[in-house]
Input
Amino acid sequence: MRGIVVGFLVHSVALLLLGGCTNNRVTNSPIPSRYAVAAYASESAPVEEIAIKEIHMVTKYHGWAIALDGVFRTLDGGVSWSSAAPPGVKKVNGSSADWFFLDSTTAWLLVDEERAGESRGVLFTTIDGGKHWSRYEVPFASASLFIAGYGKRTMGWALKRYGPALGSEPVDLYRMKGDGAWILVHRGECPSDPGAGRDRLPFGGIKKSVGFMPDGKTGWTIVEHRAPDRLGFYMTTDGGKTWRVPDLPIPLHLEGSIIEVGQVNHGILPVIFHLAGGESRYGDFAAVFFVTEDNGASWRAASILRAKGCKPLIAVADAADWWVQADSLSESSMYATHDAGATWAEMNGVRRALQVQFVTPADGWALSEDNGRSVLLRTTDGGNNWLRVPVKRKTIWPQ
Output
């Protein structure tokens, strides 16, 4: 759910890695209470902390955030935030709403409005950083959005969700037309006909996201299956009309794992294997990075990172620079590669991390939790050191 199109479209731990590995452990240092780059506006400007739920940076300075009380935008690397929500939208309900940030000024926000006891979907879009929003009624109140911009051409898809039940849910796929209207492209399996048709998105599993490549024909849907050896990755080559599970070369020694599929970015598909039995000679999980050079027609396993920990987070900046963040009960570690997985370095992790994102090999952000409050941190050296960002709300941006 939620995303940024970048280029290609679209938690102690022991490291055991196939291939070479360098260890660049950096001793943790205290996190400063102030972030050094906070010199963008008058100190007399009114400020107030905001509770960030998700952050989506587009450049090292510009980005967006979803907070408990709306949508915000930053122009200074996350130090100061300005409210950028559509008129009348004061809160974003994460259970039904969705959002997509295309670049530093263009965004979409889906909300579920109730009128006379009826629920209807309303899609807001802005092209000027949230100063003005256009409003459209759409045939879905809950969906995963994916918007792609290629030059003057903008394409959009919405994976309509009907709500999960016992680990399953039906979905429909809509495509955005040039006039802002949405047309039905694909209807997934329903409870009354599970398994009917081999080319349909399955009823089983929780649908997490949808995405497409620049040709508008090749796309993917990520599905969460809570059973061993179930690969929740479906692809289409005809714009979403038909779907199939691609042939991924999964290593044999990872059989029996719960498989968690990440987002395709720059032709990279990260897949987490939660290893059967937990503690094993390979660790608690294995992160396998699959790479395609032919728009998803074929995939190869470029790198395998095995480590201990639980629920790792993946960040991909480009085709060569990737990060894996993992927490254990006592420590946190992060691993980084800058040569497409040929070698990995261990560095300081972010405790209780909720999200990790990099926009360049050096510039990254992490969202973590401390006593129930969200904490934003930033690195400018690829994750070796992290500084806490004093997130503040600013009412007026400097001109």
